[in-house]
């Protein structure tokens, strides 16, 4: 594959990756839907810019972790389609990364909720 492709060619590969994740991974769809709900909540509550930045960072980290997890699982399943204990361990560690990212996002959401609903009142 030619590494000197145009920006739009490379962008089309990334968009295809998003389509692949959307169509093949229910957890990716769940994270995207939750992210959309977070953004809608932000639009309604109109938080300070720092909260927008933190929420966007949390969303990006969770979605990015989920995409890396999906890519790793696809590669592992292609290389070793039958069950293998080391492949299982690799997949488990990748899933743990998504769990940690999600937990971090929940901590940010809890801090936002505390400031918005408890401290403000």
From the structure above, extract its key features.
single chain, 121 residues, mainly alpha, Helix Hairpins
Write the layout of secondary structure elements.
Elements: H1 7-24, H2 26-45, H3 49-79, H4 85-119
How would you summarize what this structure contains?
The chain is mainly α and 121 residues long. It contains 4 helices and no strands.
Structure description:
The chain has four helices and no strands. It has one domain (7-119): Orthogonal Bundle (Helix Hairpins). It has 121 residues and is mainly α. The chain is globular.
Tell me the quaternary state.
single chain
Count of the separate structural domains = 1
Structural class determined from secondary elements: mainly alpha
| H-E string | HHHH
Helix fraction by DSSP (H/I, runs of at least 4): over 70%
The count of β-strands is 0
Q: N-to-C terminal Cα separation, in Å? A: 58 Å
Query: What composes the largest sheet?
Result: none
Overall mean confidence score, pLDDT: 93
| Count, helices | 4
Low-confidence stretches: none
User: What share of the residues does DSSP label as strand, in percent?
Assistant: under 5%
Radius of gyration: 18 Å
Question: CATH fold name, please?
Answer: Helix Hairpins
What gross morphology would you assign? globular
Question: Would you state the CATH class?
Answer: Mainly Alpha
CATH architectural group: Orthogonal Bundle
């Amino acid at each position: 594959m030619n590494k000197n492709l145009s920006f739009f060619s490379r962008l089309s590969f990334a968009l295809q990756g998003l389509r692949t994740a959307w169509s093949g991974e229910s957890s990716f769809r769940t994270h995207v839907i939750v992210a959309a709900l977070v953004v809608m909540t932000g639009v309604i509550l109109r938080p300070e810019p720092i909260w927008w930045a933190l929420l966007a960072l949390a969303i990006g980290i969770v979605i990015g972790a989920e995409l890396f997890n999906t890519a790793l699982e696809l590669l592992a399943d292609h290389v070793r389609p039958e069950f293998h204990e080391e492949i299982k361990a690799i997949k488990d560690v990748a899933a743990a990364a998504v769990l940690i990212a999600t937990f971090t996002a929940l901590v940010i959401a809890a801090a936002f909720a505390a400031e918005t609903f408890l401290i403000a009142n």
